[in-house]
Amino acid sequence: RINELEKGDKIVYKTKFYKRTYVVTAKKVIYDTDWSDLKPTKDNRITMITCIKNKPNQRLCVQAIEQK
User: Are the CB atoms for 37 and 63 separated by under 8 Å?
Assistant: First the structure.
């Protein structure tokens, strides 16, 4: 349900070792060949990319930065 996320929404990422909370800062459509949003950053960030129905060459990209 990545497509339902909006700027300001919270994402909680949990493992058996820790729990981190992220706040969505960006949501955009990218081409399937554009991986520029996966470059290293100075902040702790999560990037999620998923397909878009009926748009085989495009992807939805959502980024969120860790809230401390």
Answer: yes
Q: What is the Cα–Cα distance from 43 to 20, expressed in whole angstroms?
A: 13
Burial readout 7-28 (b: 16 or more C-beta within 10 A, e: otherwise): eeeebeeeeeeeeeebebeebe
Q: DSSP letter at 62?
A: E
The pLDDT mean for the chain works out to 96
- Residue pointed to by tokens 């992807």: 59
Instruction: Determine whether 2 is exposed, middle or buried from the number of CB atoms within 10 Å of its CB (0-12, 13-18, 19+).
Output: middle
pLDDT band at 68 (very low <50, low <70, confident <90, very high): confident
The average pLDDT across 44-57 equals: 96
Q: Note the maximum CA span of the chain.
A: 38
